[in-house]
Amino acid sequence: MAMPTDNSLFEQVRNVVTEPEWLLAKPIIEEIQALKREKNAVVLAHNYQHPLIYHGVADLRGDSLGLAREAADADADVIVMCGVHFMAETAKLLNPDRTVLLPDYDAGCSLADAITADDVQALKKRHPGVPVVTYVNTSAAVKAASDVCCTSSNAVTIVEALNSEKVLFVPDRHLAKYVERNSEVEILTWEGGCVVHEEFQSADIDALRADYPGIDVIAHPECTKEVQDSADAVGSTSQLIDWVEEHRPEQVAMITECTMSDNVAAHFPKIAFKQPCSICPYMRRITLEKIRDCLETMDDPVEIDPRIVPGARRAVRRMLEYSRVDS
Ligand code: 13P
Ligand code: SF4
Predict the structure, then answer these.
(1) Separation of alpha carbons 296 and 289, rounded Å
(2) Is residue 201 within 8 Å of 226, Cβ to Cβ?
(3) Helices H, strands E: what count in the chain?
(4) How far apart are CA 151 and CA 43, in angstroms?
(5) For residues 91 and 101, what is the distance between their CA atoms, to the nearest angstrom?
(6) Which helix (H) or strand (E) holds 29?
(7) In whole angstroms, what separates CA 61 from the centre of its chain?
(8) Which residue out of 86, 102, 111, 170 has the highest number of ligand 2 atoms within 8 Å of its CB and is therefore the one to mutate?
(9) End-to-end alpha-carbon separation of the chain, Å?
(10) What is the residue with the minimal CA distance to atom 1 of ligand 1?
(11) What is the pLDDT along the chain (327 residues), one digit of tens a residue?
(12) Distance 169 CA to ligand 1 centre (A)
């Protein structure tokens, strides 16, 4: 089956998407592009989204911090969040007057499920006066119970900005320990974890290094300490992408959700990407068909309980304020 040579979008993704996949997706991508124009909509996509979404229909792409910033600056009537529920809630907190759509409400997150607002209140009672930093991978209710949010790219900056010897950092225990190792602050944490990143073992990295001598290994801070210690660099999804862009390794393993490697590989066809694969079942719930359908019907825009909006918005805005100069 020959592809039309003028098909520049397919040219961008041809090393990570097969021709039959592309031919099936193309009419839906065209429908979405038309709907975006008709509804004055912008599509935001997290770095873990499928290449056909990421390269095919997204207007803006990024990690959680980047998407929050893009959402804060959005100039459209409608925001479609191709990511998970907490990302759509964050976009809505920053855009109360815009319609925010999430193509599938079952796109959750194991970290967001790990802690409730009542858990945070109980922690605060047990540790009076200790400020609470909440990872952005949480519900709006949990954010409202905390002092400030953070993402994996600004966690150390935010914790240090509080000028406290001790901080409650919830719910990801691995990111919490990463912050403790990279700051002077004592961190109290929670037992949350990411089902995708906890899959990786340091033995996986040993095996990669044995199979591909000289390979660079870079990991997300939601991985265990052992995995982080075995890696050459640790960072948020966008920081890992920046690392590849800057270092241009011959071969690299990105120890994070593996769809991201395909998105990056589309940009860097000369780099060999090798990694153990772990897929986020929540991110995968977003499909081209669901994006088209939500734009067509405009059904179920994101709504947040008005009682928790002010507190949750304050925590997100404080994060953006504290991390203004961060990448
Ligand atoms: P980033 O902010 O690094 O993109 O992380 C989001 C996430 O869900 C990682 O699993
Ligand atoms: Fe949540 Fe992990 Fe999926 Fe990220 S990869 S959305 S932290 S479950």
Answers:
(1) 10
(2) yes
(3) 15, 12
(4) 21
(5) 10
(6) helix 19-39
(7) 10
(8) 111
(9) 43
(10) 63
(11) 333 334 788 888 888 899 999 999 999 999 999 999 999 999 999 999 999 999 999 999 999 999 989 988 888 999 999 999 999 999 999 999 999 999 999 999 999 999 999 999 999 999 999 999 999 999 999 999 999 999 999 999 999 999 999 999 999 999 999 999 999 999 999 999 999 999 999 999 999 999 999 999 999 999 999 999 999 999 999 999 999 999 999 999 999 999 999 999 988 999 999 988 999 999 999 999 999 999 999 999 999 999 999 999 999 999 999 987 544
(12) 16
Best residue among 282, 284, 285, 286 to mutate for probing ligand 2's pocket (most ligand atoms within 8 Å of CB) is 282
Q: Are 256 and 224 in contact (CB under 8 A)?
A: no
CB 106 within 8 A of CB 290: no
Is the separation of the CB atoms in 217 and 208 below 8 Å?
Answer: yes
Q: Are 81 and 100 in contact (CB under 8 A)?
A: yes
Q: What domains can you pick out in the chain, each with its CATH number? A: 6-108+283-297 (3.40.50.10800), 197-273 (3.40.50.10800)
Nearest CA to ligand 1 atom 2: 64
Which structure tokens are listed for 260? 């991201």
Strands of the sheet containing 166-170, edge to edge, are 148-150, 132-135, 166-170, 186-188
Q: How far is the CA of 196 from the centre of ligand 2 (A)?
A: 6
Contacts with 162 (C-beta within 8 Å, 6 or more apart), sequence order: 131, 133, 147, 148, 185
User: At residue 111, what are phi and psi to the nearest 5 degrees?
Assistant: -70, -45
